[in-house]
Amino acid sequence: MKLACQEGKAPGATFAEKLKNLEKYGFEGVELNGAMLLAPGGLDERVLALKDSPVKASSICGGHGCQMVHPDRALRQDCMDKIKKLLDAAAATGAAGPISVPIFNRDPRVPDLSPYMNSHQLEMELLVAVLGELAEHGAQVGAAVILEPLNRYESNSLKDIEAGAEICRRVNSPGCKVMADFFHMHIEQRDMAKSLTSVKDVLVHCHLADSTRLEPGTGLTDFAAPFKALKRAKFKGYMAFECGLSDAPEKALPKSVRYLKKCMA
Fold first, then answer.
1. CA geometry: angle at 108 spanning 105 and 112, to 5°?
2. Of 58, 64, 87, 177, which sits with the fewest C-beta atoms within 10 Å of its C-beta?
3. How far apart, in whole angstroms, are the C-alpha atoms of residue 160 and residue 200?
4. Using one digit for the tens of pLDDT, what is the confidence trace for 60-112?
5. How many separate domains does the chain show?
6. The domain that contains 9 carries what CATH number?
7. pTM for the full model?
């Protein structure tokens, strides 16, 4: 278990400066911004800076439209093409892979074709088909598409990590994994530790935020019990801060790192 932070949360005029600050605050990893990786020169800058830093790339967030199950084939293909580029970027930087949310809102993307399939069933079948192609590319380059389930108020597709894990098992490829977001789990999971244990075979990454959606240590989330479960499951991945900050990053981030290391102990 290693702590990481999204690059946008770290102060610094350059990516190299951000890495130095994250190292100073106690982080071992950085979650890369997908849009920056796809921008001209973005990948080269990050590869160069990471080479000289003890802080390593954990994952990639953003950079594509989360349209894997959109009924418009052009939008769906554009999303898939960008995810493939981000899989290549993950391989180049050493990151586990790009994170993707199948659907960001609660409106069905495809029609209800009952009694054949309702909207949700059809979305999941399309998702498995799309992920099959993406996972094949990921396996070839050594990275994985990382599914992020959201809570019931933000999405009607994968609302918990068990549902995400089921999709990964259906795809059945090292190029498709699931991640756990502690903020969403605080809403959906009755027993976070039990849920994490149940998906250990396909779990590759975590996002950290407290119940406040600010940095850990500012709310009601119990981090100690899930961390114990991850240790028992021999989880070796990164846990990245994806949250707002209650204070300036140079104050909030190191304070939260100290809090989490106590929880780990």
1. 170
2. 64
3. 14
4. 999 998 889 988 999 999 999 999 999 999 999 999 999 999 887 767 788 89
5. 1
6. 3.20.20.150
7. 0.95
